[in-house]
């Protein structure tokens, strides 16, 4: 069984951003979320990554690094492994196979038994991740479903990640992705900001990922999204 | 067990090319090769594909279609399935995930139980496949090995295909790829033209693929490569 089999909700922390004044990593870890993923697209260094990993690793909740590039890789006993994005609709193959090849070549310490790929489909053309990966975001639900099928059938991807980073996406797209996969888990990320948005996306996605909210609004708002995800 | 588990040698027929005068598909099928793969990079149509598939499908040897694009897909009882190239070092993501997404979207008849991906690393920069896919062919053996590791570990690819299309490659690169994989089978293609070239590459590759030779020199030359592959 994969570590995320029982997850409904994940917090994604960006080491380049701060928590809300007066709040702690302990409060985030005890928000009711099922896991903490640590990653970000820009401004990442191993030092920033290490600080957040070590802080979060003290609590009971599983901690995963989501490396965007080699500078975001940080080996430590304080985390449970890596969730590695593969952007299936990237325009630049660096984000499908290229960066991964460089990681395999330059890092002699990869523990593959706790390294899991995530098949991303990036859908908000205004997001930094879309710009960075030159993603083709102009996709109909059936095209997203086809990427999901290919990710599962031809590339044995255990996670299909519908990513609307920065904006709440179209539930019909998440539904199409969920209908297309058989055993892969569907993660949804983007614009989750309250009970309702979490509840809506969790109707189709196995796991709802909440990112900016924790940095912008804080743990009380986060708890509402946990409740929305769990009650879907 | 995968169909190719016991294969040493594959003939690749290009439906856009002819056999040597006076030779037949029956002679190719009874050359001692373990399988016939049918595919080509340019000039492919479903009609050309159908003609060669139906001709080869009458004999005992397994027949697989290797579709380069949707026009090369041909559903029939005369073949055993599809070996689908995924070009891990392509510069254009169409050849990693894009064409595959279109196939999954537009073809309602895909039988995934007999559809297998092949993780290609394309290494002859002068070949049409390199030009077509905008492959980055300037790779050291350790980079090819890293692609092999990623193909197996992150994408569960059952075949790692070292492709020197049109020229005999560097055995050290094939060895590096073979050393990098654990359970994936290594296919080698490019420039196999006699006993020695087949024997050399089969020392490292599980399967040696012979293409142009059968169109240019004929079945007698082909038999020599079968012998070279089997005696390695």
From TrEMBL, chains A, B:
Keywords: Cytoplasm, Lipid biosynthesis, Lipid metabolism, Magnesium, Metal-binding, Phospholipid biosynthesis, Phospholipid metabolism, Transferase. Belongs to the GGGP/HepGP synthase family. Group I subfamily. It catalyses: sn-glycerol 1-phosphate + (2E,6E,10E)-geranylgeranyl diphosphate = sn-3-O-(geranylgeranyl)glycerol 1-phosphate + diphosphate. Its EC number is 2.5.1.41. The keyword Cytoplasm applies. Pfam families: PcrB. Pathway: Membrane lipid metabolism; glycerophospholipid metabolism. CDD domains: PcrB_like (cd02812). Its main location: cytoplasm. Prenyltransferase that catalyzes the transfer of the geranylgeranyl moiety of geranylgeranyl diphosphate (GGPP) to the C3 hydroxyl of sn-glycerol-1-phosphate (G1P). This reaction is the first ether-bond-formation step in the biosynthesis of archaeal membrane lipids. Sn-glycerol 1-phosphate binds at residues 12, 161-166, 191, 211-212. It is an enzyme of class 2 (transferase). GO terms for molecular function: heptaprenylglyceryl phosphate synthase activity; magnesium ion binding; phosphoglycerol geranylgeranyltransferase activity. One of its GO terms (biological process) is glycerophospholipid biosynthetic process. Signal peptide: none annotated. It comes from the Archaea. HAMAP family: GGGP_HepGP_synthase. Mg(2+) binds at residues 14, 41. The keyword Lipoprotein does not apply. It is found in: Cytoplasm. Its cofactor is Mg(2+). GO terms for cellular component: cytoplasm. This is Geranylgeranylglyceryl phosphate synthase.
